[in-house]
Design a protein that fits this description.
Length: 348
Amino acid sequence: MKMTFRWYGQNDAIPLNYIKQIPNMSGVVTACYDVPAGGVWKSETLEGMRALCNAAGLAMEVIESIPVHEDIKLGKPSRDGYIANYAQNIRAVADAGVKCVCYNFMPVFDWLRTNLKTPNADGSNALSYSHDDFARLDPQNLRLPGWDESYSREQLQELLGEYKSVTRQKLFDNLIYFLKKVIPVCVDCGVNMAIHPDDPPWDVFGLPRIVSREEDLDNIFSAVPELNNGLTFCTGSLGAGRFNGLASMAAKYAKRGRIHFAHLRNIKYTDAGDSFCEVAHYSDCGSLDMAAIVRALVQNGFNGYVRPDHGRNIWGEDGKPGYGLYDRALGAAYLNGLFEAVERPGQA
């Protein structure tokens, strides 16, 4: 297992030397955040980022993410040009020492929450999703936490309109078309593609979701069987769907060599439906058995990249929602302990 930490480049409020001080931290997970989806990444930018990371004693072996342009998801005639750019980016990151690319195929919104700072009884705050709050949103006049600046109202409505004719099957076909073009490049470059599950794992605003459950993953891996076509096993995203058995899924896909990256976080179900709040990583703080998940990963051969996923804002920190320093550092320390206990039984 290689413990990593999300880093948003030189504009991140958390400096690399702070990240390095977290025990067992091997590297960072980053991206070229100033390049829009479909653009081409510059090799000199990647080399500069790698040099900064290496100078801090950290590797840069995981990219999250190279965004997939909406025209690829929609299956437009322009997609081949954007796929060619994507393949060029895969080669560029490989040249910079990257081994794994996390990406998603979610239409329009690559994550969705209804509150970015839900207050907790202990004084912390965290991301949450309320089904009741979501049901009150007007798709014609959306004001989404964290997404208000992503599109103008007119752009968003136009994009949502384009997806009205896109079925789940069509979106799946477009994903497979994309993968059949880029996975051969990954094989050639020694890079693993790790698709991130839908977050949350159900349709939103009529937009289809196709990476939400075990059946979806089986279909993706069956259609493109190369092992470079793999998964980012995100416990929070998959765990939001109570229909997913996380420990059994972790065991199944780790044993098959499909899990290249793991986002490990806990959530707490807050009603009998789809609502949840993100909590501390410790199992008893939420609804997910983190110890069982880690045990299933290790015992079935997982040795890929891990990062502590979303944390709360604690100890007065007012950081980027989900991406403050303190709670993610605590999460990394907790996860280190879980992995050591399984990897070194009788010694930890």
